Amino acid sequence: MLKRSDFKPAWWLSNRHLQTIVPNILRPQPDLAIRRERIELPDGDFVDADWVAGGRVDAPIVILLHGLEGSIKSRYAGWMLKKLSDAGYRAVIMHSRSCSGEINRLPQSYHSGQTRDFEFFFKLLKEREPDAPLAAIGYSLSGNAILKWLADNPQQDLLVTGVAVSVPFDLKACSEFINRGFSKVYQAHLMLKMKKTARAKRHLFEQEGLEPDIASLRTFRQFDNALTAPLHGFADADDYYARCSSRPLVRHIGTPTLIIHAKDDPFMSPATPPTDDMLADAVTLELAEGGGHVGFVGGRWPWQPRYYLEERIPAYLREHLPL
Fold this sequence. Notes:
Layout: E1 2-4, H1 16-26, E2 34-40, E3 46-52, E4 61-65, H2 75-87, E5 90-94, H3 116-128, E6 134-139, H4 141-152, E7 161-165, H5 171-177, H6 184-200, H7 202-207, H8 220-231, H9 237-244, E8 257-262, E9 283-288, E10 297-298, E11 306-307, H10 308-320
Parallel strand pairs: 1-9, 4-5, 4-6, 6-7, 7-8, 8-9
Antiparallel strand pairs: 2-3, 3-5, 10-11
């Protein structure tokens, strides 16, 4: 079901770039007490999960999955973890490979369609606590991945519900849109981080017979052609984009799922989200006129901002994971 979101952008953050930049770069980080857990993966690699300390030991668990080059240090992640914990949930973020501050062991890493790592984590949690309800929130890249996983597993019984925010539903279209105009700034910012990680893993790429000219990579498409595709079994970037985009898959989701998206997301065109006829009955897409990319800041005055995602998502979760 496609619904018009009731979110209204703050007048003092009136365009998509301010909505995207201010809360994700200028907002202070929350003070969190964290317990880190290392998860050893079946292929010999690892991911790190950070649990927010405190809360009831029998409370439902909400797993946060960050976006491209994100981590617990990302403002949207840290603050959501705090709000979830304050609400009474057990909140945890599972870092993608190489995103927790330590380079992973294998040449392979993560991408918009890589679902096996968080599926392993979901299963691990369910084995530990079979009666604990689980939910997952995926942002941006991980929003696409969680939608793909839910579509590939329409009868899954690991998650009670899923939430996806600011999803790049059509990876090819997004790779083209973010390479235009001011959106290139976001691409350049993320590429700096991606290339830094790639340089640290150059010796691992060489083991796979890859010797990319990392310095010459300027765009997501170039990076995906040079590294993402060959490392993860795709013929090229186009093959990767076609096989991992969630837009054509959301019709197959059988789990109650909420998607929150803004038409003015600077990472993609307004035509990117799926239309109403493409959505499964279990999926609700709340589409806002404004909000930017993982922004959604409202409020009457700059000194009294309201962070919509931190209100809407816990409210939605309370409907499916009562405390």
